[in-house]
């Protein structure tokens, strides 16, 4: 059986959960299921097909084992990896024609320094998933060149670790259309980073206005092409050459 979906990653506060919720509510010509892989989350706005908190919860680990937040999260992800049968049973409840979003924790070390998420993606691929990684970056990061470039390089590192078709997405692009942000963008090195990411073939730098259905459709079209989802697999190259062309 073949399944399709996205691994939604990025730092805390980058909008991963909101992204999953909006896509599920809009459907976008597919039945979207969401899998929560964050054992620390308190509230989930979307309908959850699989929830790691049913297996293990960060607050319980911290209370019973005395771990701090970071160590506790690492323990939770290790525990998830060890429970192969639970993972497989949960995924068996997902229909073949469902499109699955995996809402991941925001601890960057899980993607850049530890191989837990890579092992998880290997399990998903082995289970029949064709997935891409989608690394969300808040567009406000561009107001600090060093912070923004650091975020993009972390995204690049995560993409290499996960060994999946990779997309780095600048989210909330409506904030990007002010004169100040355009000047910051043009003065920064983002265009060089975009060329680097594209040329070495491990990802693309895209943008997303989460309030605009057309913007979401364009992004999904790019991802669908990469994972070979759907009947129309022709990529519309005019949609995403460089983000600056859309300003």
UniProtKB/TrEMBL annotation:
UniProt keyword rRNA-binding present: no
InterPro entries assigned: Gpn, Gpn3
Sample GO molecular function, one term: GTP binding
Transmembrane domains' residue ranges: 123-142, 148-170
Keywords: GTP-binding, Hydrolase, Membrane, Nucleotide-binding, Transmembrane, Transmembrane helix
Function as written in the Swiss-Prot or TrEMBL entry: Small GTPase required for proper nuclear import of RNA polymerase II and III (RNAPII and RNAPIII). May act at an RNAP assembly step prior to nuclear import.
Record PANTHER family: GPN-LOOP GTPASE 3, XPA-BINDING PROTEIN 1-RELATED
Subunit-structure text: Binds to RNA polymerase II (RNAPII).
Family: Belongs to the GPN-loop GTPase family.
Protein name, UniProt field: GPN-loop GTPase 3
Species per Swiss-Prot/TrEMBL record: Paramecium primaurelia
């Amino acid at each position: 059986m073949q399944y399709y979906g996205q691994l939604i990653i990025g730092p805390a506060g980058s909008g991963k959960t909101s992204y999953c919720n909006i896509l599920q509510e809009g459907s976008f010509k597919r039945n979207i299921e969401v899998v929560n892989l964050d054992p620390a989350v308190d509230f989930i706005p979307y309908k959850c097909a699989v929830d790691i908190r049913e297996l293990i919860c960060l607050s319980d680990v911290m209370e019973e084992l005395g771990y701090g937040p970071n160590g506790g999260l690492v323990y939770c992800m290790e525990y998830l990896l060890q429970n192969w049968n639970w993972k497989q049973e949960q995924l068996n409840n997902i229909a073949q024609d469902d499109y699955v979003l995996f809402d991941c924790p925001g601890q960057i070390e899980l993607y850049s320094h530890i191989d837990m998420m890579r092992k998880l993606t290997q399990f998903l691929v082995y289970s029949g998933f064709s997935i891409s990684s989608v690394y969300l970056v808040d567009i406000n990061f561009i107001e600090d060149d060093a912070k923004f470039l650091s975020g993009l390089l972390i995204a690049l590192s995560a993409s290499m670790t996960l060994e999946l078709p990779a997309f780095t997405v600048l989210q909330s692009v409506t904030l990007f259309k002010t004169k100040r942000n355009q000047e910051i963008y043009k003065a920064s090195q983002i265009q060089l980073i975009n060329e680097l990411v594209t040329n070495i073939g491990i990802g693309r730098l895209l943008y997303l206005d989460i309030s605009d259905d057309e913007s979401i459709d364009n992004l999904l079209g790019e991802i669908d092409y990469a994972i070979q989802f759907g009947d129309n697999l022709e990529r519309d190259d005019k949609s995403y050459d460089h983000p600056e062309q859309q300003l």
